[in-house]
Specification:
By secondary structure, the protein is mainly alpha-helical. It has 3 helices and no strands. The longest helix is centred in the middle third of the chain and has 83 residues.
């Protein structure tokens, strides 16, 4: 008889017994109930903390605005300083290569153009 019941279940895999459905439902409840309980507790704690801190937030909001603006200014200053440091290091690298002579054509062309520009400025200054 047990072999016949096993044979019927193997022939039709979609046939699920009521006992397996009850076991699956109990397992689902055992897993999800604590999760739902923790979610509810977390939501309740968040609401309580919001109710407690809301008056403080409203009282100190003007200060928080200016603190945020100062913080944004500080971050902008650090970004600007980092950019200037990068530019300074690249200029020092360029000067080092210039002194060592590793820049060939670009440097002499730049120096020649700067000399011409300086002479043009001197001539304009003498005309005035």
């Amino acid at each position: 008889m047990a072999a016949k019941g096993h044979q019927q279940q193997s022939e039709n895999p979609n046939n699920v017994s009521g006992r397996s459905m009850v076991c699956a439902s109990l397992a689902c409840i055992a897993v999800t109930a604590p999760l739902l309980g923790m979610m509810g507790f977390s939501f309740l704690a968040t609401l309580i903390l919001l109710v407690i801190t809301l008056p403080l937030l409203l009282i100190f909001s003007p200060l928080l605005l200016f603190v945020g603006l100062v913080f944004a200014g500080v971050l902008t200053g650090f970004a600007l300083a980092a950019t200037m440091a990068l530019a300074g290091v690249s200029v020092l690298s360029w000067m080092y290569r210039e002194i060592r002579g590793s820049l060939k054509a670009g440097c002499s062309v730049t120096a020649g153009r700067l000399g011409e520009l300086g002479e043009g400025v001197k001539e304009q200054g003498q005309k005035v």
